[in-house]
Amino acid sequence: MDSDLKCNTLTCRRSLVDKAVVTTCSHIFCIDCANQLFSTAQICPACETSLTEPDDVVICSLNPSNDYKTSVLSGLSPAIILEICSRAISFYQYQIHQESSFQQAILKNVNERNAQLQKQLENVIREANSELGLLNNKIAGLERDLELERRKSRDLHESSKEKDKEYQKLKVRLRYPSPEMSSASIDATGRICRANTTRLNAKLSSGRAISMPLQVRRALLGLRPAPLNPIKTTNRIALELDSEWARA
């Protein structure tokens, strides 16, 4: 039959099943621990009681045979038998009380450790919530900045569309100029031609043949040119005059 008793060595605490070593100070140990603890001094390792008498430390069987049960108390008076039983029951009660105290101490340590871990967990949760709040604020700020950038992008897009419309209108006006722009271009061409006439007259009077652009000759003869693009025509005439003057 299994016993509820355990070795009283705190580093062992194994369950005692077959044989054990008991002391008169109501402690019990397994055979291995007893061989180590009582090999040098007869002192109880649990309560430090001196065990000098021969019967202070004995080996007992926890599962005695029927013959042992029959003979162990045979011949003893009922008073002695009752005294032995009373001491045996007191020993067992002390072991149960000691085991209960040990388990309560373990439970106390576990509860204290649990309380410490709970405090640490609360601190970790508090710090995590604080960091989470900071991150949420940062995300909110980034979202506001992103919305501002989106608005700027939309404004730039609208402005670009307006600029593109103005550019397209300007291209149309340059490709198909109005009569006022054509007159201004012709006047500018005439001024350029007159500015170069003085330099060309010196070469013409020398009898040297100088090729002149068609637009220049038409301008000198007083003919009205009809360019498709007055600005490009004016620039081209100026470049041709400069080129002819350089060759001359």
TrEMBL record:
Gene3D superfamilies xref list: Zinc/RING finger domain, C3HC4 (zinc finger)
Keyword check for Ubl conjugation: no
Q: Which residues cross the membrane?
A: none
Gene Ontology terms, cellular component aspect? synaptonemal complex
Looking at the record, the residues that make up the RING-type domain are 12-48
PROSITE patterns referenced in this protein's UniProt entry, alphabetically:
ZF_RING_1, ZF_RING_2
Instruction: Name the InterPro entries on file.
Output: CCNB1IP1, Znf_RING, Znf_RING/FYVE/PHD, Znf_RING_CS
Q: Which GO terms describe its biological process?
A: reciprocal meiotic recombination
Keywords from UniProt, A to Z, are:
Coiled coil, Metal-binding, Zinc, Zinc-finger
User: Where do the coiled-coil regions begin and end?
Assistant: 107-152
GO MF: ubiquitin protein ligase activity; zinc ion binding
> What is the recorded name of this protein?
RING-type domain-containing protein
Originating organism? Botryobasidium botryosum (strain FD-172 SS1)
